[in-house]
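<amino_acid_chain>
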Amino acid sequence: MMAKASLHLARDPVMRALIRRHGPCGLAPETRSPYEALSRAIAHQQLNGRAAQTILERFVALFPSGRFPTPTAVLATRATTLRRAGFSRAKVRALKDIARHAVKGVVPTRRACGRLGDDEIIARLTQIYGVGRWTVEMLLIFTLGRRDVLPVDDFGVREGFRVAYGRRARPTPKALRAYGERWKPYRSVAAWYLWRAANEARRVTT
């Protein structure tokens, strides 16, 4: 799969240079359920990785199993208890809504996701409080391993494009979406290389 993606993307000379510079794409899907991945994403919103991880550890510690809590367990837990882990009121509301939609079957299992297209998953999950399109796109790429997702609203992807393609300004989401048509059906892989370009540029300037 990745070899085919590299051959396809290498038709674009800038992508070809990124592939040579950064090597094989390192995308590998996680084994978490979509429910857990969404819940963890809420914890990470507007926080650095270390702070979010501390809160998640406190969150899991609230439950006697010592494992990530089930949707039913989250729904049965008082909001004030969840807040003790460090979640804001808005994040508690989001966690509860994710759990509620998981119980109803709106949040699909990994197996069920195999029968759903990317757009259908986005439409279902963005019904949930606190879950936007970008969050679902990250789930599609990093949890479900979907290979043709281009998160055009992502700062790192847009900045990586600016750096790699020598532009003065970051592209608009609309412009990036249009340009990305040439990367189909491996736009997730293209995004991974654009993230590498943005990260490298940031290291050079710091």
In short: The chain has two domains: 2-27+150-205, 34-142. The two ends are 35 Å apart (CA to CA).
